[in-house]
Amino acid sequence: MKKILGMYSAPAPHWVGNGFPVRSLFSYESHGKQLSPFLLLDYAGPARFPAATKPRGVGEHPHRGFETVTIVYQGEVAHRDSTGQGGVIGPGDVQWMTAGAGILHEEFHSPAFTYQGGELEMIQLWVNLPAADKMTAPSYQGIRSDEIPVVPLADNAGEVRVIAGEFQQHAGAASTYSPMQVWDIHLRAHATVTLDLPEGWNTAVITRKGDVQVNEHTRAAAAQMVVLDAKGTQVQLHAEADSDLLLIAGEPLNEPVVGHGPFVMNTREEIQQAIRDFQSGNFGQIPA
Questions:
Q1: Measured between alpha carbons, how far is 206 from 183 in angstroms, rounded to an integer?
Q2: H helices of 43-98, where?
Q3: What does the alpha-carbon distance between residue 281 and residue 158 come to, in Å, rounded to a whole number?
Q4: Which of 113, 124, 150, 213 would bridge with 76, disulfide CB 3.0–4.6 Å?
Q5: How far apart are CA 236 and CA 202, in angstroms?
């Protein structure tokens, strides 16, 4: 079993724009070595929004050097970026955006969700790019829920949605630049499962709903995260109640991480160049 390094509760929420009340479960400043290649995880909601006439969200802003992965569980989010890509993602859908050399994007509640109001719940995960790929061309993967493999667990214990990586020979829907697993897991009450993971991979289990015991020692409820050691090849999960989890695991990049706001590179000089390129308009424009 992978040794448990720590259990962390979500801090108080803060607003991203006026549409996303998020709790930051980790960042590269707090868990950089322990969770590489993952940089940050924001858990937005669950929060209820009243009906409105003007979409809430966060306006145009840049990124360089990493990927943003948005998983929607409730509500709808509309995305546009400077590659000309975009669209609306709803419950179960995933938006995997590679900022690479530089991208501008915006994220708002969809028009339909804005006018109707309702519950919003989503996770945004930042995934670092290897140094060799940080200046790759920006791109966008809009992944519908029905494109994500759903693998039943033995003994009717629940199921795994394979967003990225592989589970029991089912390949995930997303294309990635380094080896990783991103799994949505649903466990039924009183179920116990043991999951296999590669030796040397950094791993964390985030509980969205329910009550889960990890490796028989640590109990995690909603909006709590258990971080596991890279050593070892298994994690055991026991659900005290019906539970929804996100498991992330990845091969560490073992490269320097230098971040400044929306830019994550390997050196301070690369950050300064990113700022100059953004200010010079080299990140393109979001089409009207």
A1: 10
A2: none
A3: 48
A4: 113
A5: 15
The length of the chain, given as a count of residues? 288
Structure confidence by residue, pLDDT tens digits, 187-198:
999 999 999 999
**String of b and e for 171-180 (b: at least 16 CB within 10 Å)?**
ebbbebbeeb
Q: Using a cut of 0.85, tell me whether the model's pTM lies above it.
A: yes
- Tell me: pLDDT of 156 over 90: yes
**Average pLDDT of the chain?**
97
What tokens does 3 get?
């040794």
Query: What is the spatial distance between Cα 64 and Cα 275, in angstroms, rounded to a whole number?
Result: 10
260, 58 in Cβ contact below 8 A? no
Question: DSSP per residue over 52-90, as a string?
Answer: -SS--EEEEEEEBSEEEEEEEEES-EEEEETTS-EEEE-
Q: Measuring CA to CA, which residue among 44, 186, 185 is closest to residue 124?
A: 44
